[in-house]
Amino acid sequence: MKKVLTPIFLLFVLIYQGHSQNIIHFFKNVPDSSIMNYTKLDRSKIYEHYKKYQAKKTDDRLTNEIDASFSKLDIRNGYIEITGFFEGEFQMCYWNMKNGHKLIACY
């Protein structure tokens, strides 16, 4: 029994550790109240629209149904800035802490 459970446990650990977390993952999964009450579905739509916009290189960045879009998206450095038809601005970034956790800031 132990010989069967050990490889399964190791596979689970490798899969869990291999799951990458980037700024898009955090953007989609933080509480709605942290991101101007945009729902998880709305945030997914913002990202999907951004990917289509980048592929076409057109000028219709804010024509999605959410009326918000990334004005800056730096996945490598963990930074997002959103513009749209709302008052104010939105920025989000994260830092890797020494203990392995992430510190996420939403402004």
How would the blueprint of this fold be written?
Layout: H1 2-18, H2 23-29, H3 40-56, E1 68-74, E2 79-84, E3 90-96, E4 102-106
Antiparallel strand pairs: 1-2, 2-3, 3-4
Helix pairs in contact: 2-3
Order of helices and strands: HHHEEEE
Placed side by side, the strands forming the largest sheet appear as 1-2-3-4
Q: Mind summarizing the main beta sheet?
A: 4 strands, antiparallel
What percent strand?
A: 15-25%
What does this protein structure show overall?
The protein is built from three helices and four strands, in the order αααββββ. It is an alpha+beta fold. It has a four-stranded antiparallel β-sheet. The chain has helices at residues 2-18, 23-29, 40-56, and strands spanning 68-74, 79-84, 90-96, 102-106.
Defining traits:
38% helix, globular, 3 helices, 107 residues
Summary?
This protein has a 4-stranded antiparallel sheet. With 107 residues, the protein is α+β, with helices and mostly antiparallel strands. It has 3 helices and 4 strands.
